[in-house]
Design brief:
It is built from 4 helices and 18 strands. The chain has helices at about 15-25, 75-85, 145-155, 205-210; strands spanning about 5-10, 30-35, 40-45, 50-60, 65, 70-75, 90-100, 105-110, 115-120, 135-140, 160-165, 170-175, 180-185, 190-195, 200-205, 220-225, 230-235, 245-250. Helix 1 (about 15-25) runs antiparallel to helix 2 (about 75-85) and helix 3 (about 145-155) packs antiparallel against helix 4 (about 205-210). The protein is of the alpha+beta class. The relative contact order is 0.18. Strand 16 and strand 17 form a beta hairpin.
Length: about 250
């Protein structure tokens, strides 16, 4: 008998979902995924309450999408990533939530059709809180360039100081034996946009930002929103449509 889906979507490039799963798993192992008629979303805090991740993919992101009512499903992203690593180049992905079953079905369609089924987790809910911060600065940077800068920073230190003003954004770090600084100036090709209502200086955990950079694989630009001694909002546009965004707590100097 054909399964009746509570929700179903199809992505022509399975790699997109693999990277999204990888991005979530780097922050939190288990979280609720919400399907609703407008698309799919996730919002969750990591166990230390240091970083929040939010994912949104509108229904237009998918080649096929079915969902008539809101449904939240608890997902183990570690186990899901293990499955998604089996996706091959050229595979499409169909994800199905069967009615009346505590399962998620992952169908990979390519040279052959392979189906994995994972049990869902009860008791998980999407994070309800939303944080509205009056940021003083904003920079849009090519994802690849930001990824390289963060990799450079992690070669030297664990934390990163970010300065932003009307003309530039500066990333710096130092350790007992070395220092590093990267500067993007208004007009340079990697700095797509720059806004500053006031100068900004803040410090953040670079290791967390390094984990966030997993999203750069399926994004062409990243947007940083900043305020001195306030959380950093880092957002990645998704090439398939939608966004992955993070809110990272600041560090004291």
């Amino acid at each position: 008998m054909k399964k009746v889906p509570v929700a179903r979507f199809r992505l022509e490039n399975a790699k997109t979902w693999r990277v999204i799963v990888e991005a979530v798993e780097a922050i939190i192992e288990e979280a609720a995924l919400k399907f609703f008629p407008e698309g799919v979303k996730l919002r969750a805090l990591d166990p230390s309450k240091t970083v929040m991740i939010e994912v949104f993919m509108p229904q237009e992101s998918f080649s096929e999408f079915e969902c008539s009512e809101d449904v939240e499903v608890g997902i183990n992203f570690h186990d899901t990533l293990t499955i998604m690593k089996r996706a091959r180049s050229g595979d499409s992905l169909e994800l199905l939530i069967p009615e009346g079953e505590a399962m998620v079905e992952y169908k990979m369609i390519g040279a052959s059709t392979r189906v994995f089924r994972l049990r869902t987790i009860t008791g998980l809910e999407i994070e309800k809180r939303e944080f509205k911060i009056p940021f003083d600065g904003r920079a849009k940077i090519l994802s690849k360039e930001l990824e390289n800068i963060i990799k450079d920073i992690l070669q030297v230190g664990e934390n990163v100081d970010i300065h932003l003003d009307e003309e530039k954004i500066v990333f710096s770090t130092k350790s007992e034996s070395s220092e590093f600084e990267a500067q993007l100036v208004r007009g340079e090709p990697a700095l797509l946009e720059l806004e500053a209502q006031a100068p900004v200086d803040s410090r953040y955990n670079a290791t967390y930002i390094g984990k966030m950079m997993k999203s750069a694989k399926i994004s062409d630009y990243a947007t940083l929103e900043l305020k001195s001694k306030a959380p950093l909002k880092l957002s990645f546009n998704l090439l398939e449509g939608g966004q992955i965004s993070y809110l990272l707590a600041p560090l004291t100097r």
